[in-house]
Amino acid sequence: MLKKINEIFGKTDDVLRRYPMVLLMSFLGSLSLMCFAHVNFNSNPHFFVFIKFALVSCLGISLMFALKMLSQRIGKQTLLEISGVLFLVFFYFLLPQEEKYFTERYAFLIVPAFILSHLLVSFIAFFGKEKEVNFWQYNKNLFINIFLTGVFTGVLTGGVELAILAIDKLFSFNFNERYYLETFYFLSIFGSSFIFLLFNEKGLSALEKNGTYPVILKFFTQYILIPLLLIYAVILYLYSAKILINWELPRGWVSYLILAYSVVGILALLLVHPLKHESTTSWVRIFSKIFYFTLIPLLVLLFTAIFTRILEYGYTEPRYFVLLLAIWLTLVVFYFIFTPKATIKFVPISLFAIGLFALVCPYLNTFSVAKRSQKTELKNILNQNSLVKNGKIDFSVKVSDTVADEISNKIGFLVKRDEKEFVLNYMNLKHQKIITNKINKGDLYGIQSQVRSAFSNVDKTKNSFGENFELIAENKLMFVQDYDFFARVGNFRDTEGLTVGQDVFKIRSQQKEKLLVITVNNSENWDASREIKALMAKYSNRTGRVSVPDITLEHDLGNYHIKIIFDNLIRENFGRENIYFSDAYILIRTR
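Request: output the structure for the sequence above.
Response:
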């Protein structure tokens, strides 16, 4: 037993000495999320720093591991680690200072950065003349270790969480719920990193060592993964035939299916790479020979689908990345078809190069291309519909709902990408103030709805399915002067009532066509549904959000005067119109 304990401590000490920067990054990442959870996800903007720090630290885990593998090949560990830290500091300051400006565009920076850091791990130690078999063994062992890490971490985390729950319930400690979340963050980030490093033993020398091919991996790839890929290939070819027969443009999402089939197929070929020369694996040999040829017709379909969307709506970051992936896939296909001594190292290295180009290449990176494209698209739409007068958008010109949606979408897109000045140049003083105010408040997502609602003469041309509208009350203060009673509608149930003197008020809300009905003593009632629908009918051509000073209705009922104050009114169209509200308040006074 003592020998086992010493062995465990010995391995722990070895991991701490070999991978201090990897463990530091994982510790800081888990600690940042634990701090964020400890304040119960407080919306205070100062706590956003924990999210930023966690993202950068987690990025540093794979980056520092990649640099460690490189240092085990060429030395210069300290210089490489300093370079890694400087990059992470730079990346931290690329992210916004406040959460309200953390829009979806940062996802197109963070997600590719994480993917690139993991790709770097796969090949950074094999830039020289190292044997391809060592490269394959290295990545195979990493793949297995990642899978085992997931299993071990899942069991460890689940076990510890259940232990905490057992102690809490059996001994009545009444632990705060955040302890469970903090434990999860620590074990899933720091714990998984530590377990992964334990599997990697001495690092590069152990990972690239020749070993036997795992039987389970061979079975999974040959009898599950490759047959599934063949099924998907048949489906995609049948869809291609349907397009040719009907002579129609492909649907946009087919590009994602083709990319998924291609990437998974390439991964399958990489997994079975050592087997394709064995005589006993004819299935693998045949698949290896025909796979890249099967991709050629699908590439034509892929580019057709991509350019159909780009030519119609312009570039956005997702379309840019899909196009680059299609270009990369074409390079991979022709490389393996026409290169006699093709190396599998080309796959991760070329993908890394394409991804790096997409993020950092001046003028041609994804963010620059998307902004230029959407600016051009916006100018074209405005000019085609004669919406610009004296350099400003004239929102009183009659336009179709499709055009109004397009313009508002593109303006919202540009504002979220720091193109404030470009957008404001098209606005009159009134809308400049509104948009500037929303930007200063961080309500970037509300700008699109604000612009859409500014169009006062919209011709409805498309099906109303899915078109939503929300009327919002700006005034959050409720004046109760001159009223005797105040109540929330949400506090009532059908069977309950509010007793006022000798009278009992009952309220039914949002039941089918009856939006709000107030009854006194089961005799007199006021059905406010008609007034609510009439109020919303004033905005029948609007979508998005419209702000008004307040939303109120008043009515005399029996011996009382009643006033209803709404926070909002929402209209949804999902096949049929549906109107509802989040909450409402009732003020009552005796007449």
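The chain is about 60% helix and 15% strand.
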